[in-house]
Amino acid sequence: MKPYILKIELEREHIRALEQGAVLTISVKGVPSSANVDEDEADVQETPPTESGGSFFGFFLQQIDRLQASGSARTSETYRAAFRKLLDFRKGQDLSPTEMDSPMMECFQGFLRSQNLSMNSVSFYIRILRAVYRRAVEAGMTVNRCPFRHVYTGIAQTNKRALTIEEIRTIKHAPLILPSERFARDMFLFSFYTRGMSFVDMAYLKKSDLQDGMLIYKRHKTGQRLSVRWEPAMQEIVDRYPSGNRTYILPIIKKPGINERNQYRGKQNRINKALKDIAHRINISQNLSMYCARHSWATIAREQKFPISIISHGMGHANERTTEIYLKSIDVAVIDNCNQKLISLID
Questions:
Q1: Which of 220, 242, 271, 301 lies 20 to 30 Å from 196, alpha-carbon distance?
Q2: Angstrom distance (rounded) from CA 57 to CA 78
Q3: How far apart are CA 291 and CA 304, in angstroms?
Q4: Using alpha carbons only, what angle is made at residue 203 by residues 200 and 205, rounded to the nearest 5 degrees?
Q5: How far apart are CA 201 and CA 250, in angstroms?
Q6: 50 has pLDDT over 70
Q7: Does the pLDDT value for residue 210 go beyond 70?
Q8: Residue with the larger pLDDT of the pair 252 and 161
C-alpha cells in the first residue's frame, strides 16, 4: 500500500493549547487512492485541558500556611503582605485563577503604582503573585494564560544608602540625651564595627559565639559561617549593656523562646525610627537605618581601595555565591586588619 503524508497546519492558538496540555483529535475523511493528500480535508478538534478552578484566595492562604509550617517565617510574611495587596485591589472579592488574565494584572500593577510604591516594590508583589499562580497551574486549577507577560517583574538597580566617614563620625560623637537614641546609635555602630552585620544576626549572637578574641557566627540568611576579630570598640558597646544571665550578647531579644522574631523586629523598628530622628537632628540627609551601616562599611572599604576580594556581599557583589568564592580565597586575618583600619577612621 502506497504511504501517504498527512499535512496538518495548526493555528497559533492550537499550538499554544498543545503546549498547555490540550489533546488534539484528528479524523481523516475517506481518502481515495488517487487523491492528492494535500487537498484532503482533516478535521482538528481541540479538547481543552481540565480546570478545577476554585478559590484563589483560599489557595494563596494555603501557600502561606505551607511556608509557615516549613519554617520559612520570613517568606510567609512577604507572601501575606502580597496577599493583602491583592485583597485590597479586589476589594475583598475572591476570584478563581481561571479569571486571571493579562489585563487584570496590568490593572493590579497600576493599583500598586498608585500607592506610591517604587517599581522594585511593585515587582516584588507581582513576582509573589506569579509564584502562587504557577503553583495553581501545577495543581490543575487553571491552564497557564500567561497573565504576567505585560507587567514588570524585574529588579532595577537602586542607589544604595551609604554614609561617608565624616557622617558616621558625626553620629558617633553626637551629644544624644534620650536613652533610645543612644541605644540606636550603639546598635548602628556595632553593625558597622562587625563589617555590616545584619540586625537579625546581631539579635541572635550568643555569648558562646565569642571565644578567644573571635566572634564566630552563622548568617541567618545564607547559613554562611563568618568570623570577626573582637575589637575594643565592640566591647565598649557590650559593656554598656551588662548581660547578666541573658542568653544573647546584645539586649535585643530579652525573652528567649517567646516570640523571638516579634521581639527583634519590634526592636528593629524602634531603632530605625530613632536613627531617623538622629539623622534629622544632626542634618544627615540620608534615610538612616540599620541597613546603612552594612552598606556604608562596604562603600568606605571600597573608597579606601581595599581589594575587591576583601569586600563581601554587602560591598557590591551580585550574589552570595560570589561572596563565598572570594572569602574562601583570602586569609581572614587580612579582612580583620582592614576592618580595624575602618574602625579607626571614625575615632
A1: 242
A2: 15
A3: 20
A4: 110
A5: 11
A6: no
A7: yes
A8: 252
The predicted model gives 256-264 an average pLDDT of 89
- In the chain, how long is the greatest CA-to-CA distance? 102
Residue 118's identity, in one-letter code, is S
Task: Give the Cα separation of 156 and 78 in Å (integer).
Answer: 19
Nearest Cα to Cα of residue 310 among 201, 211, 300, 345: 300
Percent of the chain clearing pLDDT 70 (strictly above):
77
Query: Are the beta carbons of 89 and 108 closer than 8 angstroms?
Result: yes
Q: Does residue 66 surpass a pLDDT of 60? A: yes
In one letter, which amino acid is 222?
A: T
Give 40's pLDDT tier (boundaries 50, 70, 90). Answer: very low
Give tens-digit pLDDT for 280-317: 999 998 889 998 998 888 788 878 877 776 775 434 34
Those residues whose C-beta lies under 8 Å from the C-beta of residue 341, and which sit 6 or more positions away, are 304
- Nearest alpha-carbon partner for 296 in 233, 337, 346: 346
Q: What is the pTM of this model?
A: 0.64
Going by C-alpha positions, the residue among 51, 138, 61, 135 that lies closest to residue 96 is 51
